[in-house]
Design brief:
By secondary structure, the chain is mostly helical. It is built from 31 helices and no strands. It is elongated and about 120 Å long. InterPro entries: PPR_rpt, TPR-like_helical_dom_sf.
Length: 683
């Protein structure tokens, strides 16, 4: 049946239909009645946009941006928006009419709808308010008008929500929200948590925008005067002056496919537009206040309050999250404990993101035992680690020095198909560096670079420093070359580390090559560089070359410092040149700086070998008081000097201290068994 035919039929049967509506007026609810007194057919729940299939169409083409429909007033300035309103209105009214008159055939129902729509559009064309329309119209009963106003309000609310969702889509793509999401991604936030944060930030931006829009609207209304203010009415139709040209998207919407579309839209809407927590009143509100003010050590009381809260409120996930948000604001110390208790609640619908938030909180507070307990719960409940949680574990284990667990979490992260970000790579590389495994750190750095994540200069320098301390010149050269290929100019610090790496293995020629290249780059040698070169010459006992270098540097204005003098003291001490050593110690004292602690090892060794018992034992007492700072090589040198100086008992005592510190003393024990010719002792 065409629209023209239906319209023609409705004019002849209009009075008859109205009589039918009047005779069944009890079926339609009065707007003044409570919902509890409504007939059964109105008790069915009405969803917002899901009750009409037209919400599946692009709404930006139907709703003018200026449209702002509320329960008090609505102004429709666009024909497409009017069509949208009428189409939604017909869709809902069809269900109500069919439920009220189940025995009527389709033609009769269509006729009723045409009659209602004609009356509604007439009121819209006149721009009349609700009270004027309901009291001034004798065509429909008051109860029927009440149903019309109810459906009209429902449609306006739906269209307003559609408008807000369209605005929300725009704010989701705004640059500020994108920038915050990019930053969140860089710090390791991924998956559902990042998605929730993005919607939260977009919603906040939208609310801020609407707030300022409201202020501007209030300013304009105050300029216009009282006539421009909204009337305080409960329900209404969209007001409009002039003839309405409209096209209702099919009074024939009985195809089952529209119901399937509506269901899909409803599911999508629940994800896109989060639910609001229900109001908590009465005793439940009192219990909630007690939870928020509870003490951290009252576990039993807290659990009892949570159980009572469940019984009174029957909370869903929305109410639980609202409770946690309030806890975070009002009682942050209790937040983690309550959040962990709630994980066991079925109504909370626990997922991996909830575990992630707690693990992240505990990890930042260095609560490693709490993290392990949560991980055990995750395994027991069959919840697998996600990328965000694995990233947090990598940072935590690296910080705590648990390299095996850090590597396990890192491999889990890669096994999930997720490329580690810069922060994860940085934590792992630094963990390898601190553990004395720069080669593994270098391997990760290559993997990092191949994944289009550029290592920073700090990472290169940390690896170079570690290779240098180990005397791994090949590794140090590789890192230095990689730095230059990455666009980092070789710094004075890098040159110094290369010199020290070669000094460590006793290669003065390569050390001198790096030293000369540093000068070529325009850097002036400092005390540390000179000390590195002197140490390189000391390994080969090239004293003449060392003195020649010092004279050359002094001619260029260089003044030796504590580092250079300390290397010379160690070298001359091995040669047992006591007077020269004491002169250098005097120069160090004039500089006003204390010599390095490890220099005491050299002095103890020297004085013991020359037989100066007083000074040897005096320095030995200093070394014993700081035995935790001594390494295996230091203990071996001290014991060797004491043995050669004839201080057997002191050597045995230091040997026992060495073993107590966890070092292997088998090598020095063999020397203790050998007969030793005593040197003449000086007192």
């Amino acid at each position: 049946m065409s629209w023209r035919t239906i319209a023609s039929t409705s004019r002849h049967t209009f009075k008859r239909l109205n009589a039918i509506f009047r005779s069944h007026s009890a079926t339609f609810p009065s707007p003044h009645h409570s919902r509890a007194s409504f007939p059964a057919f109105l008790h069915a729940p009405f969803t917002t946009t899901t009750t009409t299939p037209h919400s599946s169409q692009p709404t930006n083409a139907l709703i003018d941006p200026k449209l702002h429909a509320t329960q008090n007033d609505a102004v429709v300035d666009d024909e497409d928006a009017t069509n949208e309103f009428l189409s939604r209105f017909v869709w809902i009214m069809r269900k109500k009419v069919k439920e009220a008159y189940p025995e009527s055939d389709k033609a009769t129902v269509d006729g009723m709808l045409v009659a209602i729509v004609e009356r509604v559009t007439a009121e819209m064309e006149k721009g009349r308010g609700v009270e004027t329309a309901s009291l001034g119209s004798g065509d429909f009963s008051e109860d029927l008008w009440g149903t019309v106003w109810e459906v009209s309000n429902m449609v306006l609310e739906d269209m307003d929500k559609e408008r807000k969702k369209e605005k929300m889509k725009g704010f989701l793509q705004c640059e500020e929200v994108k920038e915050m999401c990019r930053f969140a991604g860089e710090v390791g936030i991924r998956g559902d948590l990042l998605r929730e944060l993005r919607f939260k930030w977009a919603r906040e931006k939208m609310e801020e925008h609407e707030f300022y829009e409201g202020l501007e609207k209030m300013r304009k209304e105050s300029d216009v005067g009282e006539e421009g203010k909204k009337e305080n009415v409960a329900v209404g139709l969209p007001k409009r002056k002039g003839k309405i040209r409209y096209k209702i998207y099919g009074l024939d919407l009985s195809d089952p496919k529209w119901a399937q579309v509506a269901e899909r839209i409803h599911e999508a809407e629940q994800v896109f537009w989060p639910q609001e927590p229900k109001a908590i009143t009465g005793k439940a509100k009192v219990v909630r206040s007690k939870i928020l003010s509870s003490k951290e050590d009252d576990d039993d009381v807290l659990q009892s309050l949570l159980n009572e809260f469940v019984e009174l409120v029957e909370p869903s996930r929305v109410e639980w999250i609202d409770l946690l948000d309030n806890l975070k604001e009002q009682n942050r110390s209790l937040y983690s404990k309550v959040a962990e208790m709630i994980l066991a609640e079925d109504s909370f619908q626990t997922n991996v993101s909830d575990y992630y938030r707690l693990i992240d909180t505990y990890a930042k507070e260095d609560c490693f035992d709490d993290v392990e307990r949560l991980l055990k719960k995750m395994r027991e409940n069959g919840i697998q680690l996600d990328a965000s949680t694995a990233s947090v574990l990598v940072h935590m284990y690296c910080k705590g020095g648990n390299h095996d667990r850090a590597n396990e979490a890192f491999e889990t992260l890669k096994g999930l198909g997720f490329q580690p970000d810069f922060q994860v790579f940085n934590s792992m590389i630094m963990a390898y560096v601190n553990n004395g495994e720069p080669s593994l750190g270098e391997k990760l750095m290559r993997e990092m670079d191949s994944g289009n994540i550029k290592p920073t200069e700090e990472i290169y320098m940390a690896l170079l420093r570690s290779f240098s301390q180990q005397g791994d010149t090949k590794g140090a050269d590789r890192i230095s070359l990689a730095m230059q290929f990455a666009g980092f100019q070789q710094s004075k610090e890098a040159c110094t580390l290369l010199i020290e790496a070669n000094a460590h293995i006793g290669d003065p020629y390569q050390a001198k090559s790096h030293f000369d290249y540093m000068i070529k780059l325009g850097y002036k040698p400092d005390d540390r560089c000179a000390a590195g070169m002197i140490a390189a010459y000391e390994k080969k006992n090239y004293l003449d070359d060392a003195l020649e270098l010092l004279l050359q540097l002094e001619n260029d204005g260089f003044e030796p410092g504590v580092a250079t003098y300390s290397v010379l003291v160690d070298w001359l001490g091995k040669l047992q040149l006591v007077d020269e050593v004491e002169q250098l110690l005097g120069k160090i004292a004039l500089l006003g700086e204390a010599p390095p602690f490890k220099l005491q090892v050299s002095l103890c060794d020297m004085y013991a070998r020359v037989g100066n018992e007083k000074k040897a034992l005096q320095i030995l007492g200093v070394l014993e008081s700081r035995k935790d700072e001594l390494g295996k090589a230091d203990f071996e040198r001290i014991i060797s000097g004491l043995i050669d100086g004839g201080f057997q008992q002191d050597a045995q005592r230091i040997c026992r201290i060495m073993e107590a510190q966890g070092f292997d003393a088998s090598k020095v024990k063999i020397n203790l068994l050998k007969p030793v010719s005593r040197a003449p002792r000086k007192r």
